Amino acid sequence: MLYSVAKPAGLKSEIWLAALDGRFPPRRLSSGDDSAPHFAPNGDIVFRSSEGKMNYLYRMHGDGTGRQQLSEKPILVLDGISPDGKWANVWGTGPDEESPNAGLLVPTDGGASVRTCEDCSIKWGPNGRYFYVYLRDMSRGHGAALSPSAGIDCTYAIPLRRGSMAPALPPAGVKSADDLKNLPGVQIIDAAVAAPGMSPSTYVFTKTNVHRNLYRIPLP
């Protein structure tokens, strides 16, 4: 089955369910200006819902029933959920005024959020054994010193404790590579991992090449 988001002209965005084999026609599951659906192992859907100028984290059953708001605090982006469906990775409101927005792990069953960082990308491995952190400024400062080749992006693969999808990060979140390099069992990957595999030795990453104009054109 496939979930998708449709936004009719001038109307709110909607979440639809469709069968990949065409065995039933597409079904509309919600029409509350909802987007970014992610699917939990139990069939629930975690998604972002817009209310006026604010976005909030919601959950509903796979048939569109049981709609429930998961957090009172607004969010900006829902980027994914953990393999067990118990944590949502969001960019939202932090606890202090100095850095009001931050990456957060929000528990889908209630409880306190975990701050991840102010400027990073995070992903879970598909089997839930590793948590991956990529700092966007990794090619500068501490990050460059950790890589065998200066200027290469780095991703940190953090092993997770059995039964937990939330790593033991600093309470204030990750500020620099120094907060990651001494974590027990951490592995450093010399790439910005786009999609992790079953172990840190297997992953997909993007390699960018720049091709400039081969001809010099004089300007008047």
Looking across the biggest beta sheet, what order are the strands in? 4-5-6-7
Please, how many domains? Answer: 2
Intertermini distance: 60 Å
Specify the number of helices.
1
Question: Largest sheet, described in full?
Answer: 4 strands, antiparallel
Listing every helix as H and every strand as E from the N terminus to the C terminus, the arrangement reads: EEEEEEEEEEEEEHEEEE
Q: Indicate the multimeric state.
A: single chain
Task: Estimate the strand proportion.
Answer: 35-45%
Q: Unreliable stretches, pLDDT < 50, 5 or more residues?
A: 138-151
Q: How would you sum up the global shape?
A: globular
Total beta strand runs = 17
Mean pLDDT: 83
> Helicity level, as a percent range?
under 10%
Classification by helices and strands: mainly beta
Q: Please state the CA-atom Rg, rounded to the nearest Å.
A: 20 Å
Describe the structure.
The chain is mainly beta. The protein folds into two domains: 1-92; 119-206, no CATH class. The longest helix has 5 residues, at 142-146. It is 2% helix and 40% strand. Mean pLDDT is 83; it is low at 138-151. Strands 4-5-6-7 form a four-stranded antiparallel sheet, with no helix packed on it.
Q: What key attributes describe this structure?
A:
single chain; 17 strands; four-stranded antiparallel β-sheet; 220 residues
Brief characterization of the structure:
By secondary structure, the protein is mostly beta strands.
